[in-house]
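SEQUENCE-TO-STRUCTURE ENTRY
===========================
Question of interest: how does this chain fold, as expressed in backbone structure tokens?
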Amino acid sequence: MTLAAEIALIALAGIGVAICVALLPAPRPLRRGKTAPAGAPRPQQLVALERLVSTAGPSAVAAHAYLRPVLVEIVSHRLVARGQTLGRMPEATGRALLGDQLWDIVRPNRPFPEDRHGPGVAPHELGAMLEVIRRL
């Protein structure tokens, strides 16, 4: 076989490989667990929680009226496992266990915000509170 024939054969083989690669399906990223198929509707609870978090940031009223009850329910559930309740917890214990931010929003008899146009709970603050809850 001549050099020209060998080069032509290698070129044809290269073209064949390129065609085969082009026909392969696109690689899928590795994911943990199952994910919803593309275009699948999102769960209503997730949509509602996202809306709650987005409205609780800029609005003290929304944070108090909508986010607070959810946090109280979660914290109460976690405290029961420790044999405690929010209603019977002294303020010093609540602040020590939950931290100032979380205690201030879930404490019993929390008054309605005086500044109704004031800021609510910023996402980074909520993230810190959720980390405290996770550790309970």
Remarks:
- The longest helix spans residues 3-23.
- The chain has a mean pLDDT of 82.
- The helical segments are 3-23, 44-56, 60-80, 91-106, 123-135.
- The radius of gyration is 28 Å.
